[in-house]
Task: structure prediction
Amino acid sequence: MLSLAAREGRILVSHDLKSMPRHYREFMLSGQESPGVFLIAQDVPVAVAIDALMLIWVASEAEEWANRLTYLPL
Result:
């Protein structure tokens, strides 16, 4: 998924808090560039997750999240 998101220039949103940080670290150590990854726990209410993503979309530029792994909500 990380490679596909990177090829497409898309920020990846995932619930995989257990293994995604390790996969992301390995991906970055391999010399790849990433548009970024947002991790959202399964128990976060959908409305809260949507609000967080909408706030990020309105208040920032995609480039600000490049090569960052971010846990949401902030």
Notes: The chain has a mean pLDDT of 96. The chain has one domain: 2-72.
